[in-house]
Amino acid sequence: MTGPTVLSVAYPFAPVGPDPVGGAEQILTRLDRAVVEAGGRSVVMAVEGSQPAGELIALPRVDGEVDGAARRTVHERLRALLAKAVAEVRPDVVHLHGIDFDAYLPDAGPPVVATLHLPLDWYAPGALRPVRPNTWLVPVSRRQAGDAAVDTRLLPPIENGVEVESFAPDRKRGYAFALGRICPEKGFHLALDAAKAAGRPMVLAGEVFPYAAHRAYFEQEIAPRLDRARRWAGPVAGAHKRHLLAAARCLLVPSLCEETSSLVAREALAAGTPVIAFARGALPEVVEHGRTGFLVKDVHDMAQALNRVDDLDPDDCRDTARARFSARAMTDAYLALYRRLAAEAVRAL
């Protein structure tokens, strides 16, 4: 069976490639590769410098701070490029991954899928009720789907998957690890507080993106808490990221937002590293309290859990990741969705 032709549109301010930083970009990268491996045509619209497995339609890179003016300029260019790409590529499905997808929805035409990688209340008011026909929203967890209003046009959830076998166990080095965008909603200052209270070393890794709020958060809340035992490693990816995850005593996820999936928590479990997390959003669906990690409510609880995490078995973490968080299951589900929507569109002609 010939694979589908899929036109994927990344969040226009983050690159896509073999090992991207952002969670949405990681999922898009896996789907791009899966379409190619299935014998289909994958066309990816993403910022210049991206390296998809399929074909790239490059968006101009924004230099400097991403503010309202920059967004408006990029969205205008993206709408024009997307209209041109839909006409020329003639995709079976258009798949949108950005939080701003409603700003550049194509005109009526092929089916559109938008994956909701972020908390529902972060999207523009009209984004979850698109007027455009044949536009479908995919949640990434049961919790996220349950949070949606009854009139939201949701398909069943497709959970994010990780390539478990690419994460090998490693000798534990004793540090707690935290990884993600350095921004207020991730709450990493609380992880630093918990590590200090527990007397444990910690490595924080992640990128400070060019948003004023993110930079201010790093300067005001993160930098003052760093010391010889608790350090910031900057952005990490690839083998370096996998090593840091596998060698950590545990992963800390002190998120202050309703996490939709927590890809990094799934990766940690794949590496045999327990997860200590605030019980926000879908995290209780990922972490089995007392078996693959601990669900906690505040800094005090997190500090106490840091001193109990050695009681957990890394093999239980990996077994859970293999059984529940397979990248193959995720890509198969999306490929089936692409084919179904494409077939329905043909029948409707």
Question: How would you explain this protein's 3D organization?
Answer:
The chain has 349 residues and is an alpha/beta fold. It folds into two domains: 179 residues, 3-Layer(aba) Sandwich (Rossmann fold), CATH 3.40.50.2000; 161 residues, Glycogen Phosphorylase B (Rossmann fold). The chain is 36% helix and 15% strand. Helix 1 crosses helix 11, helix 4 packs across helix 9 and helix 7 packs across helix 10.
**Span between termini:** 22 Å
Q: Can you identify the CATH class of the largest domain?
A: Alpha Beta
Helix content, binned percent: 25-40%
DSSP summary: helix tally: 11
Q: So what's the oligomer here?
A: single chain
Instruction: Give Rg in angstroms.
Output: 20 Å
CATH homology-level superfamily of the largest domain? Glycogen Phosphorylase B
Task: Please tell me what the overall shape is.
Answer: globular
Number of domains: 2
Beta content: 15-25%
Based on helices, strands and strand pairing, what is the structural class?
Answer: alpha/beta
Segments where pLDDT lies below 50 for 5+ residues?
none
CATH architecture of the largest domain: 3-Layer(aba) Sandwich
Annotated CATH topology of the largest domain: Rossmann fold
* Count of beta strands: 12
